[in-house]
Amino acid sequence: MQVAYPAHQIRADLDRQRMEWRFIETTARIVCRGEANQFLSTLVGTRVAFEDLCNELALGLERARLANQQRDLLARAQAAIDILVRNLFERTADVGFIATDASIVAYLGDPASQDVAALQRRLSLYRSFYSVYTDIALINTQGKLIWRLTDGVVNSTSWPSVPMWFDACLGADGYVEVYEAHAWWGADPALIYGHRVLDDDGRVLGVVALHFALTEELSALRAEVLGDQPEATLAFVNSRGQVLQSSNGSRLPGGSIPRTNGDPPWSVRVGKDDYPMAQTISPGYQGYSGPGWRAWVLAASAQGNGESATDLPSLQQAQLELQSILARAQETAADLRLVLFNGKVTETGVQDVAALRVVLDQIGLAGTRTLELFDRAIGSLTELLENGLQAQVLAQARLAVSILDRNLYERANDCRWWALNAVFCQTLQAVAAGHKEAADLSAQAQPVLSHLNDLYTVYRQVALFDVKGQVLAVSRPGVEPHPHHIGADILSGMGALQAPKDYLAVRPVSPQENADVWTYVAAVRAPDGRVVGGVALYFETRRELTGMLEAVCVGAGWTGAAYRIGATQWIVETSEATASQPQGGGHWPLPDGATTLLGQQGTTPVLGGVARSQGYREFLRSDGHSEWVSVLLLHADKRFEGAANRHHLARYEGSGATRSFGVVRAGSVYLGFDVAVIRSALRLRRWLATPVSPPALGAVEASDGSTWPLLDARLIHGQLASPISGVSVGLVLRGARADFVWLFDELVGVVVAPQSSIATVWGRQAPWITAVLKEEGDDAVRVQLVDLSKIPAELQALQPG
Predict the structure, then answer these.
(1) β-pair type (517-525, 504-506)
(2) Prior bond to 695 cis, omega within 30?
(3) Most exposed of 91, 245, 318, 759 (fewest Cβ within 10 Å)?
(4) Helix boundaries (H) for 347-437
(5) Model pLDDT for residues 704-743, shown as the tens digit of each residue
(6) What is the pTM of this model?
(7) Count of C-beta atoms within a 10 Å radius of residue 256
(8) Reading across the β-sheet that carries 669-674, which strands appear in turn?
(9) CA separation for the pair 731, 750 (Å, rounded)
């Protein structure tokens, strides 16, 4: 990300500014030595403080840039491993499902008597639904590969020894997951899911193995996770740091163990360079932790000299650091304004006023340039931090919608796989023909449904029904929904399904309409292609989608998230989303890939980010379905405060007599005092507390040990009491009887105005306001002029409490 005001430019500008300040200090000592002594020490201290702050800001910019990069790499790596593990979780269920397929059981039981072409067609149909597999293989109990989808019947006796995992798979009740190189799958390591196959009597017949298309998945993940950083590198490594899969084999070759720095690593050596990187592991999904891999994402370019990702601030820490710098900057700017203000106020009594005025004007110009430099640096850091937050919002939104795309891809495929089950087909054919054994077959279908539902736990219920909608068996009797008859809308939709690849997704049009489940339906077909019934899978929509959102939100600082489904705008949201979503946020006005402030949550602005689904493989891209999903992520955030407001005082032109006024701010009121009645301005960090009544506050100790009464100018002018801060100032005024101090929020400056620019007014509530300065320009502040002689005595002295 390009930084608007990079650190090296800040330092170069700071060097030039430092030279200007030193020239002014030298000039002041030469041309007005006596007067300069009154403010030079403060001026030097102020300059040094600004230099320190700018250097700190430059360092902060570098740290923020590196932190943004590190967070970006981490978000991409976490997305990669989370998406992969959720994907592989589905594979563990698939292999358990296909191990029960009647054609596979029959072939492993007696290969010679089976129709190999029919087996080829059937498993090719399976694979066409699940394109995540490159091959399906059958292995007999002797460990011989006897059939595979890519080659058909395997008669060769020259195959190498059986894989090491084979014996364990024969004895296991569940799946086996292995990543290894074996000649059966080619020269490269392969990710294999194996499961033993049993006959009806429980006798082990062999093993079915699914070869996962890992290379294709890595390519899809690379495009999806790296996105706008195509030159970056995505890799998966094992616990030893050995590269298993890499999107850039020249940078991270497979099988290599690159040298890394840090634990967890934050950079990796590639050749002679170190590349910033992030490593993440999976938190697991529904008890499945994956193959134990780690995801690496490497930055596109090597890190610079002296750069390190150690001890980088979080967004929250960087925000606190920025707030600290801003607070100190405002105090330092107040010191500078104090020097200028007091210099301008006292110049009327100086013998060589012209020389002092030139010096003060130079200080004013240099101060303005210094403040502008500082404001640019603050703005650049603020922008960098905000961009980092927005990038995080978008990255997490894209992760949430990608997880959902892939999950719904699985749901679309599950229903079509289940519709191929031979037991279901036999049962429905018997019912259609009116055979007496139909009831017995329906009873046999129930444990099959139950077994499959145990494999695929995302479904609340699965139902088998005939062409009239009569439900014959369900996977979980007694669990709702427990349909007895399928509705006409589903039967009508199923009737429009033309081929085994087609499916029906029934979604509610509002959260009130059976909001907890969606129904996925596929037609069960006889061998001749005739529809004999269907299978309905009731997906735990609210539970699963809410879980996806919460998994994305956990630990990321998001205050809520929601999915919008297709044109119906059916919404699933986290429990916090309703409270977090600002008024109007539910309208989702954002396009894909956008972030913006949606409104307020109390006093805190809410940032929203939207990502739209891109589909996955054939899902939503070529399967005839187009109900796209969007995700909205909400982040209630104390926004980064900008630099202090710069007040514009009008510059007056004209000849004739002029008057000089010191201008101060009390809340929303700007007051001007003739410089003749101002003794000085001073910073007010503390005072002597005495028992007094408002607007009096206490007493301020003068340099000679005497005290001045202190009163709150805000309370005097009908506003809330002044919030005391590091920039609060007191104006020491020359009263009729004695000097007194009014407390103000800040000094604005000294303005020289011609008599013609002063307009007389009469204030009923504040009779001491007798005139105003005519405003010059649209952005000039309105200054009310105070006649000190009209201020009553009780507003110049302390009143006992």
Answers:
(1) antiparallel
(2) yes
(3) 759
(4) 353-418, 422-433
(5) 788 999 999 999 999 989 887 767 899 999 998 899 999 9
(6) 0.73
(7) 15
(8) 746-754, 658-666, 669-674, 783-786, 769-773, 758-760
(9) 13
